[in-house]
Amino acid sequence: MPNVAEQPSAIRSYYEGLAEGVFRAVTCQACGGYTFPPTGCCEHCGSWDVTPVELSGDATLLLASHNISPACHPRFEKIAPYVYGHIRLKEGPIVQAIVLGVDPTPQALQALFERGPVPAKAETLQMDDLPVLAYRIVG
C-alpha cells in the first residue's frame, strides 16, 4: 500500500479541479477502471495503484427528474427548482448531477424522456461555499 501521507488529498484535488473547470478522476493500473469522483483506491477492484487523470467532460444523460422542494441542501436554494439526472461519462462511470438546459417542469421532463439518452457536457456551478458538478444538455 502506498504511503498515504505522501499523496495529495483526492477530495481537495477534485474540488480544486472543479473550481478551474477541470474534471478529475483516478484510473486503476490494475483493472483499467475509472473512479469519479476520485478516491485513494479503485472502486472496481480495490487496488491502491491508481493514477490521477482529467476527464473529457463529455457524457450522456440517461434519465432526469426534478428536485424535491425545498432544496436538499441550503447551497442549492438559489437555483431551485432544478433538474438532476444520471449521467454516463464518456470514460464509463455513471454519476448523479444537476442538469442544465432543461426546465424543471413535467412537460419538459417528458419531452426529454421521449428523446431518449442525450449528449451532455460537464460544467461547474460555483455555489456560495464550493463548486458543484453539473451537466448541460448538448444539442
UniProtKB/TrEMBL annotation:
Residues 16-47 form the ChsH2 rubredoxin-like zinc ribbon domain. Residues 53-106 form the ChsH2 C-terminal OB-fold domain. Pfam families: OB_ChsH2_C, zf-ChsH2. InterPro entries: ChsH2_C, ChsH2_Znr, NA-bd_OB-fold, Thioester_dehydratase-like. This is DUF35 domain-containing protein. The lineage of its organism: Bacteria, Pseudomonadati, Pseudomonadota, Alphaproteobacteria, Hyphomicrobiales.
